[in-house]
Amino acid sequence: MKTSRHIGTPRLPHGCVALLLLAALQWGCAEPEDVPSAPEPGGTLRIVLLEPFDFLTPVRAVEPLTLQFMEHITPPLGRVDERGSIEWVMAKRAGETLGGLHFRLRRASWEDGVRVTAQDFVRTTQMMLHPGAPGFERSRFGLVKDVEAVDDSTLFFELLEFLPQRHLDALIMPLPAHIVGEDADPRRLLEWPITRKPLSCGPFRVAESTPHRLTLERSLASGFTPPYLERVEVRTTNADTALAVLRAGAVDVIEDLPFDRVPEAAAVRDARLVALVGASYLFVGWNLRDARLADPSVRRAAAQAVDTDRIIRDLVHGQGDPSRGPVVPVMGIPDTTALLPYDREAARRQLDRAGWRDEDGDGVRERRGSRLAFHLLVPDDAPLRRRLAAEVAGDLRQVGIRVEVRPLPIQALVARVEQGGFEAFVGRWYPGARHFEAVWHSEATHRFNYGGFSNPEVDSLLQRLRYAEPGFRRQALLTQLQTRIYSLQPYLFLIQDPRFVVFADRVEGARPSVVSTFWNLPEWWIPRARQRTPH
């Protein structure tokens, strides 16, 4: 078995560096075949997902995995790459004027031959701002006062406030105005035919779309460079079936393979596994309204009592990374925060100094009648989090903190957490800069600040971040935020968890990133000699 780990440090604007962990696990003993020096067009790629598709529309917030395919059907004005930079897609350039943003569009056409114009983006924005628009998508447009098609190729957003995230808030995908019409009601969005089978203006067109099947075909009419692949067939199923078809040679990609099935995939001849780390983290969220957990000595002791290196080694095959706070590497900041060292003796001493002692010898520390014993809630359908909870409980027990892991259906767990009816829970965040206030601001307890965290210095940093332009100052503020929150330990920050992706060895040109496995799908190809139906 050979394992290699690659740590990339791509160059960012203003000299910032992102620590992106891209671990490629090469298992198997197949002899490499000769690969043509240039991509060869044609062939069908088969992808297996382990979750259903969302609706293929920009008018509502969709699941991230669905978005990865939408980008190649109705491309956005731009997208954020794995270095945190904006890559223009449907826009060929953007500019800022007093009070607004201008986008100059590239030349592209809908699959019915009608040209894509600025009016398509105007109509889409109007639909997203409509009070009847479903989901949370319209909240992204809180900065938008008005939108205008200056001409067919020029789009203008007039903004209420010129905040740094202005470009990010404008990176929308278009709807075809000539199909949607003036009278379409977004409250009836799910009845629209183009919601499930959208009209394409990108490299791929939709041949079939259901919640469990998506078939894409090469589009030659959009104006984008045609993809090499003739056809992409995406199916959703369970892990058992996914691994069965992998062993049979009937699938080319499995996205987000569960951690506990990785050894099975590793045993498949000609399979290549990639672990993508740096976009999310797992944590124990404390309810700081509980006087026991409000004690910082308890939280710091817990952080020193849990062996995250062992958890990474044993649970995620050595391919995770310790979590250093709420800012993840994909956001492009130097990951310099010092971790509290794993040290059970230091954890015991800290609890002793704070007056938490096991006076009655039952293995549980107490102080003034309060016992360090609590429930740790975990989703019952999340195997990694359940295993993680068991590991945390075992480690905390060694320093006199008794934890009972309590699995709950996800709906029940979310209800308990949102209502504050918990002591601790195991969660996962995929953080973004625009979401920090909703999680960490003292006035965000009605949103995602479930534990009641409150700190004036953090509130001040969040306020300054709202107006900070990209560059050294913003990166410095994010680093301060990371350091301050980690030092307070409102969460027990555990690990940056990997996303495992499996590739058949006939797939060429794929460059999966921590942001998206399929971001460069039009560049994927299969050597002509292997463009047979997998068996």
Instruction: Find the structural class using helix and strand composition.
Output: alpha+beta
Helix content: 25-40%
Strand content: 15-25%
Tally of helical runs: 16
Largest sheet: 10 strands, mixed
- What is the general shape? globular
State Rg: 25 Å
- What is the residue-mean pLDDT, rounded to a whole number? 87
Number of strands: 24
Distance between the termini: 25 Å
The low-confidence parts are: 1-32
Mind explaining what this structure looks like?
The protein has 535 residues and is α+β, with helices and mostly antiparallel strands. It is built from 16 helices and 24 strands. The protein has helices spanning 64-70, 118-129, 166-169, 177-180, 193-196, 239-247, 262-266, 291-294, 296-305, 308-315, 344-353, 383-397, 410-418, 436-440, 456-467, 472-488; strands spanning 2-3, 6-8, 20-26, 44-49, 78-80, 86-88, 91-97, 100-105, 144-151, 154-159, 204-210, 213-218, 231-236, 253-257, 271-277, 281-286, 321-322, 366-367, 370-371, 373-379, 402-408, 424-429, 491-496, 499-504. The strands form five sheets. Strands 1, 2, 3, 4, 11, 12, 13, 14, 15 and 24 form a ten-stranded mixed beta sheet that branches. α9 (296-305) packs antiparallel against α11 (344-353) and α15 (456-467) packs antiparallel against α16. The protein is globular. The two termini are 25 Å apart.
